[in-house]
Amino acid sequence: MTPNRPHLVVDARGVAPDATGVGHYTAGMLGALDTVAPSRGWRVTAIRARAGAEGAPWPDSLWKSLANTETVPVEARSTDHPRGDWWLQTSLPKLVEKLHGDVLFSPAFVCPWGRRRFARILTVHDAIPWDLPQNYPVTFATWLRCVSGLSVRFADAVLTDSPSAARRLRANRVGGCTNFTVLPPGVDPAVYFLRETGESNALPGDFHPSGPLVVCPGSPEPRKNHEVIAEAIKLEPLRSLSPTVVLLRREETPGVERTAACLSFHPPTPKKMADWLRSAAVIATPSRMEGFGMSVLEGMASGTPVVASDIAPHRWMTRNGSAAILIPPDDVFGWAEALADSIRRDSSVTQRITRGIRQSRRFTWDTSANRLIGIADRLIRGV
What we know:
By secondary structure, the protein is of the alpha/beta class. It folds into two domains: 7-186 and 364-381, Glycogen Phosphorylase B (Rossmann fold, 3-Layer(aba) Sandwich); 195-360, Glycogen Phosphorylase B (Rossmann fold). The protein contains 13 helices and 14 strands. It has a seven-stranded parallel β-sheet with strand order 3-2-1-4-5-6-7, sandwiched between helices. A seven-stranded mixed β-sheet has the order 10-11-9-8-12-13-14, with helices on both faces. Strand 10 (256-259) and strand 11 form a beta hairpin. The two termini are 26 Å apart.
């Protein structure tokens, strides 16, 4: 590698490629940076937790798939742990300087504080710890609000996932920042956009749904509001269609769990997640609050009808419902009707599928990685 190329260092400790939220974002961005950064004249180094260490869900074999990215394994926990936070503030800055990093990209709400010799790009994905702290354990929500607010104060550029997330962060005066740059996540074209090729989808061999498949992706958090789907399937016109509801809870232990009238699965890879979404009759995302709503984007990209909660990030992503049906989060009857209409596939649903595929192509990891490198370029040039 040419030593005088600008150097981007990514704090990628505790990141898993099959995780939702922060993990998904970091894994997707790293994969795109691996090809985008060299084409823009940058080198990239990822700081990762050593395989086998606590908080290190990526095995060594997965890091080897990054052909152009150097990796530095460290014995450090992920940043959602007090000891990991201490390492962040003490050892991480020294390591970045030892690597001669020009810019540190911190994709997980926190970055080093104080005066540093390198620029800092921080991603604060949403305002949920401030708007809905009861969604998390009390100690974690308090810790995250404190350390993230301080991180925002010291960052040179602060990114977030959607315009609505930026508005809520400003409203909560997070870190006193008023200039949040919207840099949304993306989808991998190699995983999605495959329905038109006729490629078959592979679900677990022992899974044989008795009725139309309703898939609800998302982590098991109260704000995900999955209970409204369990109630909706008891009502007409949905009940007579006898749907099978699957909760794709990517952050849980692999396996199957029965909850109410639903099954819960853990897809082990992004490809398996895409298989589930393409095999569904309809995808339901009834969240009460999101920073972005990755499941809606993945659903549109899979070419499957999407019914989503009528909240700001979903309106932005679906162009005010032109690419998906939007229903108030707690309108059980509305969900029953919308899911039944989507399963029946009338002409309006088919039109939304087409618009959804077209809309989802605006959100790719390569696009986001290119914008990230553009921000880093401006920082080292002092623009």
